Amino acid sequence: MIRTRVGYAGGTTPSPTYKQMGDHTECLQIDYDPTLITFDDIARHFWSSHNSNRGNYKGRQYLSVFLYQDIDQKDAIEKNKTEIQTKNSQLIGTEIAPLVHFTLAEEKHQKYYLKRYSNATQKLREHFLTEEAFTDATLVARLNSFVKGYGTLSSLKEEIMHWDKEEAGKIISLVDALKW
Predict the structure, then answer these.
(1) Do 118 and 179 form a contact (C-beta atoms < 8 A)?
(2) Residue where a domain stops, chosen among 104, 123, 143
(3) Are residues 33 and 11 in contact, defined by beta-carbon separation less than 8 angstroms?
(4) Domain range enclosing 157
(5) pTM for this one?
(6) Helix 165-177 crosses helix 118-127 at what angle (to 10 degrees)?
């Protein structure tokens, strides 16, 4: 993934917010490099790691939904859904619909887990000077995932070595300077 953002989508209410979401659902929007991962792989990962039948949704706010941008994405989503349903002999309750509009969630909801580490967040904000730059940074997305328990710092540093060669050393130095 190149970047992740949280927000509201899937509904018709204009200008949703966390406190007035209307008929929207909290969603994660991802940007990815199709030369490194296919949408089919993303769909397969979603279905294999997501419990659509947990049954404790609060209206539409936490509804299980997978929104697509084109017919190829829709086909990949439905194909993988069918495979998982057949494999697990269980119906999947996820709503599948076109993405009409995505509204970025408020700043406090972006990179929520990383922001629990104020020293690290402060250091990162010295490097990513605007809220948009912070939210959209690949490194910040990776670190948010890391503090949630996905991956290790050593695997992140190894990945960074495959990023822009001129920037890799600076980014690793930044990661090393973070205080958790």
Answers:
(1) no
(2) 104
(3) no
(4) 111-177
(5) 0.87
(6) 150
Locus of tokens 């949280």:
6
User: Strand pairing partners for 6?
Assistant: 28
Cα–Cα distances (Å) from 124 to 27, 129, 132, 166, in that order, read 24, 9, 13, 19
- The residue from 64, 85, 104 where one domain ends is 104
Residue-wise burial string across 142-179, b where 16 or more C-beta atoms lie within 10 A, e elsewhere: bbbbbbeeeeeeeebeeebeeeeeeeeeebbebbeebe
Residue 149 phi/psi, 5-degree rounding, is 110, 10
Top pLDDT among 121 and 60 is at 121
Q: Give the pLDDT band of residue 103 (cuts 50, 70, 90).
A: very high
What is the reported pLDDT for 54? 61
**Same domain? 120 vs 170:** yes
Which residues, including other chains, have CB under 8 Å from residue 140's CB and lie 6 or more apart?
A: 111, 114, 124, 128, 134
d(C-alpha 10, C-alpha 101), whole Å: 7
High-pLDDT (> 90) share of the chain, %: 82
116 and 170, same domain (yes or no): yes
Judge if 7 and 95 occupy the same domain.
yes
